[in-house]
Task: structure prediction
Amino acid sequence: MSKDEPKFTNSEGGLRAPALPIDLRNVTKTYGKLTALDNVSLEIGAGEFLSLLGPSGSGKTTLLMVIAGFIRPDHGALVVGGRDMVVQPPHKRDLGMVFQNYALFPNMSVAGNVGYPLRLRRVPAREAAERTEKALEMVRLGGYGERSIDALSGGQRQRVALARAIVFEPRILLMDEPLSALDKQLREQMQIEIRRIHDELGITTIYVTHDQREALTMSDRIAVIDHGRFMQVDTPRALYDQPLNRFVASFIGESNFLPATLSSGKPYFGDMPLRMTRPVPEGASHQLMVRPEKLRIVQDGAPEGDFHNRFPATTRQVVFQGDSALVYAILADGSEVSMRLPSRAGSGTALPEPGQSVTLGLHEDDTVLVAE
Amino acid sequence: MAQTAPPSPNPHSAEAFAQGAASEQERPNRDRLKRAALREGVSVSVLSVPALLLVFFGLILPCGWLLLLSFVGADGSLSWENYQRMIDSPSYYRIFVTTFQISLLTTLICVALGYPLAYVITLLPKSLVALALLAVLLPFWTSMLVRTYAWLVILQNNGVINSMLIRNGIIDAPIALVHNFTGTLIGTAHIMLPFLVLPLYNAMRSIDRGLILAAANLGASPTVRFWTVYFPLTLPGLIAGALLVFVLSLGFYITPAILGGGRVIMAAMRIQSSVALYANWGAASAIAAVLLLATIVFLLISLWLSRHVFGSRGR
Result:
C-alpha cells in the first residue's frame, strides 16, 4: 500500500497547472496478424480539443488506451510535456478519463465517486468536499453529492463521470465515446456542455467518437482514423470542404463521387474540363466529390455567375424531408447524384418535377477532387 | 372554437383528443377489468397452495413438534429439565463451542482458499471457465461418505501423505492428521468449498472490468484498487457464500464423525446419540432448538453487519 502509492503535486487552490501538449511518435500495436495501430504519429497542442474519428475497429479506442496506459504499444513514444510516459503505469499518468459506460463505482455515492481521486491524492477532507461540490456544479449537478449512483439517469451519470475526471485538475482529459449511450437530444446538449467545460478549464482533450457530426461540432481538429492509420488530420472545416481521400469524404458528411480524370494535370469529367480553385491531392487515381447541398439548379442560358461547372441531368426522384428536399438526378454519363435543395420560399429554385431535364451548377470553390 | 363547426370526423384530431380527456364519467370496461384482475389474483394464490402446504407440513409442523418435545421431560410431563441439563452439564457447553469453532474455522479456510480461486476463474478464457467450474463441482457429484473415507485413506498414519513424508525423510514419525480437530477441518473445508466459490464467482463475474480501469486512471495503485473498488463489490457474494458455508457446517454430521475419530463432537452428533443410543427425544430436541436459535441470532447479526458496516455508501 505504501510503495506503489502515486505521487502527485496538487495544484494549490485556484492556481491551475498549464495544459500540456501530447506528442505521439511512431506508435504501433499489433494483435497477432491484426495491426490495430500502424506507426501513427500525432502532435496535439496544449489546450487543444482533438477528436479521434473513425468506424468501429479503426484503432481509435486502442490509441486512447495507449495514451491512458491500459494498452502497451509494441513500440512508439508518448511524450507529454517533454516527458516520455509510454512505460508509466496508468495510475501514475495523472490523466482524467471518461469511459464509454461511465464506470462509476456503484459502492460509492455521487460525492464518493467524484471525491475518489482527491482521497487518493490525500487532499484534506474539507478541501476535497469543496472541490467535489465545485466539480459537480460545473457539470450542473450541484447538491447531488449524497445521491446513490443507481438513482441517476444516464445523462446524470455521464455528468458525474465527467466531474470525476476533471475534479483533480488533470492536464489532459480523455473521453471514450462518452455520449454514445444517450439519446439524440441529450447528446447534442452534452456536446455543447463538454465543449464549454473544455474552454473553461483549457484542458488538452482527446475525444474518441464514431459520430462525425459530434466531431464536427466539438473539435478544434479531427484526426480521421481507419485501419490503424490517420487518413487526414485537420480542422472540421477543412475536412469537410477539402477531404484528401475518398474515405474521409464519405465518412464526413454526405457526398457523391463521380468519375474524374487528370489529363496533363487538368481535371476532366468525361470530356468536360472542370474549373477548380483547390489543389489536387496526391494519388494514383481521382474522383470528383460533390456535396449534395453544394449543387444548384441553374437556368439554361443564365449568366454563368459563380457556377462554372455545369452538368446536364434528368431528375429521377424528389424527396421532401422537411427542412430540405433531396433530389436524385441522373447525369449524362448515367451516374446518379443526390442534391439537397432548401425548402424555403424565394430560394430562387422551385422544386423540380421527377423526370424534368435540368442543368446542375457547381461552384469552382466547391469542386473537389479526392484520391481513390 | 368560436365557430359552430360540426364535430370533427377525425377521432385523432386535436379537438377529439381534448374532448376524450375531459369526459371522465365514461369509464368503459371498468368493472370487467376489475373482475379480471381479481380472477388473476385468485389463480396465482391457488397455484402457490401446494408449495405452502409443503412448507407447513414439511417444515413448520415438524419444527413446532420438535420444539414441543424439547419441553417434555423423561416422565412425559411438561418441564424445563432438557434445558436445565444443558446448563448444568459442561459437556454440552463444550459441544456448542466445538460446533461453532469448526464452523467458523471452516468458513475462514474456505474464504482464504475460495477467494483467490474464484478470482482466477474470472480471469480464465471462456472455454476454460466451464472446465474450472466443473472441477469445482465434480466433488459434489460424489457421495459425501466416499469423499470422507477418501480423506481417511489419505490422512491416516500409514496414509498417502504420512508415508510419503517418512519415505523422503522429512519426518520420522507420522503426524496426526486425522481422528482429531485438524482432520475434521480438512474434510469439512473440502466439502464446503464449492458453496463459497459459486456465489463468489457469480459476484465477481458481474463486476465491470472498466471500474478497475477507472480506479487506475484516477490514481489508484493495484492494492488500493482492490480494497476500494473490487473487494467491496465482491462482498455481497462473499457474505452469501460464507453464511452458506457457516450454517451448513453447524449441522455437519458424517465428516466430523468419521474424521474426528470420536474426539471432535459437534451438536449434530450429540443429537444422533441422544436419539439412537438413549432414545431421549426431549434432550435431542432441546439441542436442536438451541442450535437453531443460535444460528438465527448469528444470521441476524451478520445481516445487520453487512447492511450497516460493509454496505455503507460513500465515506
